[in-house]
Amino acid sequence: MNSPVNYEIVDSVGVITIDNPPVNALSAAVRQGLQKAMRAAQDDASQAIVILCAGRTFIAGADITEFGKPPMEPHLPDLLNEIEASAKIVVAALHGTALGGGFETALACHYRIALDSARVGFPEVKLGLFPGAGGTQRLPRLSGIAAAVELMAVGNPIPAQKALELGAIDEIVGEDLGVEAVAYARKLVADGAPVRRTRDLTVESLPGAAFDALRAQIAKQARGLEAPLKMLEAVQANVDRSFDEGLELERRLFTELMTGSQSKALRHIFFAEREAAKVIGLAKDTPPREINSVGIIGGGTMGGGIAMSFANAGFPVTLLEINDEALERGLAIVDRNYAGSVTRGKLSEDNAAACRGRIGGTTDYADVADCDLVIEAVFEDPSLKKEIFATLDATCKPGAILATNTSYQDVDAIAAATGRPEDVLGMHFFSPAHIMKLLEVVRGDKTADDVLATVMALAKKIRKVPVLSGVCYGFIGNRMLGPYFREAQLCLVEGSTPEAVDAAMTDWGMAMGPISVADLAGLDVGYKARQALPEDQRGDPRSYRVADVLVEAGHLGQKSGAGFYRYDADTRAKTPDPEVQAIIEREAKALGVMRRDIDAEEIVDRLIYALVNEGMKIVEEGIAQRPGDIDIVYIYGYGFPAWRGGPMHYADDVGLDTVLARIREFHERFGDAWRPAPLLEKLVAAGETLTGYSS
Ligand code: 3H9
Question: How far is ligand 1, taken at its centre, from the CA of residue 580, in Å?
């Protein structure tokens, strides 16, 4: 087999080129090839050595697919020590993204140059890890401890220019990187530059108190994630241990993380996210339709947010409203959101103005007739949506993609309002749409393959994470939310309080508790939906009676200053409401429920296993393509803690037999809503897990 590492001497410089597409990950073959080339270069006529990469990027890190498998030699930390020990000068030449083990490789070289467009960073924390091949010991020696900690704790890469300022690279060079690198190495030799080993640099000393402050700050940001605190422990070794002792500590802590459940969960998410973008059965070469302009029908909160997502990615957008007044209101929300982005430092003033400049308004359908994609984002009224689609059908050019942002409605029924159902699909954004990353792409019965291919690819362009869903009430995410909210409400009536239910879930890792989420979404939304249904179709009255009583008493949620909690008019700070607790207790009595103590463990199990049981049905019905897709929906759309891997991965991690046993117990205690999903029973009976399952 050809080695992914090539070695040749160019102008008396040994040039090592790594060519391991797509991202030059440090697989065992790359490590072996790199070691062989380094050793060859020690003994030949070369005067210095350059390490660079072919393709679109420098090494993007260790090969994540090897994690969790038996390690193969040479181990990266040992290989990097060997590179650093080289008697000849070694120069790393960076382009694209030098990440994780890739950046560590560069730090083990004696000098680093980069293209201006290159970026470097340590994203390991996003995989539940920290740099484990010397990064925690080498970067602080170059950039200082505080900058290194920040880079490793957050995980976002920085541009070459910033890395230069931090001292992590030495020079930014012109576009022809190979030529520049050889010239740079030759100049170092000619100037008599020393072999400059990062390990030998002095590291600044920081008092213990400074580490205490960093620890407190990281603990606050990390919210349950173990890796950032362990990273800090390894970094602290810079000041109280030798370099080699620091490496040893780093390796021990790294291995603990690597074999732990958090990193396993986050690695699952890394691959699940990339998998989710792929549509099973869709030919890879399906030609997408060209999308150069976007129309949005409805300038409310959702429509405005969707418009911003496209405008921010460079698309011209036409926002359509029913009349001038509504249009003005909609555009004013967009203005406010952009002003907010500037204040929060997310966009520069110029950038915000440029993005805002791409959004135009209209009240005339003729102005969206030529758009390549039109997204309907009006409120959830099925007949209004059908009316709009009939109008779009009559107005829009042939081949335009017509999408609905509905959260619940039947996409097939909406498509049937047009004479071109093959051009119709759902694009379900999450609020606030310019911030939330999830996009449920809903495939109708007749949606054409090229429409799907176009929208899945387009999602990436507007920086969303797409997940394909089939048509059902609520699609993947909101359908699962039904049983989750049901259990939250039942826990309230059976003996808990809004604060206790929320605390149980946030302590477990959810970004927000379910009761606070309900208040944020508005209690009137569910109320109206229930009112539209005959009483026998509204579900268990114990799961909505309190909410109904609250709405009828004017508690609509955050927007009315009171829901399950009270909200301060200025700060929106919430406080428990004794009146609400009295209503809960009164309604429990009226419903004949004997209240009892409910502990956090029961709350968590009931809410999370309600998600899991519904998720199993969604997988079995083929509404989701894979269990991992559900995990992506919950992590990017519903504040599920990524380090728990999403509800389906979590179920596998706990053990499906344990989950089933608990669900059976709930079935017995609480009734038919808890009937175990057939797929769960099947998997447990067969001794299988969800890993690798696809419908
Ligand atoms: C580490 O380095 C630990 C060390 O400190 C210590 C070790 C001892 N491995 O994202 P894309 C695949 S931890 C294996 O769509 P983009 C990816 O699955 C690592 N595979 O491209 C996908 O496969 P497919 C620290 C990898 O252009 C394909 O490449 N590094 C790896 O949008 C294309 O990926 C990281 O965490 C990998 N390391 O973005 C960096 N990376 O086509 C992780 C990618 O079959 N990677 N693949 O679906 C990234 O952030 C992005 O991939 C990158 C390119 C920004 C590089």
Answer: 49
CA of 293 to the centre of ligand 1 (A): 31
Q: What is the per-residue pLDDT for 637? A: 96
Q: Is the pTM of this model over 0.85?
A: yes
- Rg of the chain on CA atoms, in Å: 28
Q: What is the DSSP string of 578-630?
A: HHHHHHHHHHHHHTT-------HHHHHHHHHHHHHHHHHHHHHTTSBSSHHHH
170 lines ligand 1 (CB under 6 A): no
Query: Over 70: is that where the pLDDT of 580 sits?
Result: yes
- Coil, strand or helix: which one is 363? coil
Reported as a pLDDT band with limits 50, 70 and 90, residue 1 is low
pLDDT for residue 619 is more than 90: yes
- Closest CA to ligand 1's atom 11: 274
The yes-or-no answer on residue 688 being catalytic is no
Residue 102 identity: G
If phi > 0 it is left, if psi is from -120 to 50 it is alpha, else beta; for residue 169 that is: beta
What single-letter DSSP state applies at residue 281?
T
Is residue 66 within 8 Å of 102, Cβ to Cβ?
A: no
**CA of residue 609 to ligand 1 center, whole Å:** 32
Burial of 527 (0-12, 13-18, 19+ CB in 10 A): middle
Q: Using a 6 Å cutoff on CB, does residue 276 contact ligand 1? A: no
| Segments in 50-127 forming alpha helices (H) | 76-84, 101-108
Task: Dig out the tokens for 504 from the structure.
Answer: 């149980």
483-498 burial code (b ≥16 CB/10 A, e <16): bbbbbbbbbbbbbbbb
Look up 124 and say whether it is catalytic. Answer: yes
C-alpha closest to that of 15 among 33, 30, 37, 36: 37
Which residue, by CA, sits nearest to atom 19 of ligand 1?
Answer: 61
Residue 277 Cα: closest atom of ligand 1: 48
**Beta sheet of 119-121, edge-to-edge order:** 97-99, 119-121, 158-159
Using a 6 Å cutoff on CB, does residue 97 contact ligand 1?
Answer: yes
Tokens 């549509």 appear where? Answer: 279
Tell me the average pLDDT across 488-506.
98
Q: Whose CA is nearest to atom 47 of ligand 1?
A: 23
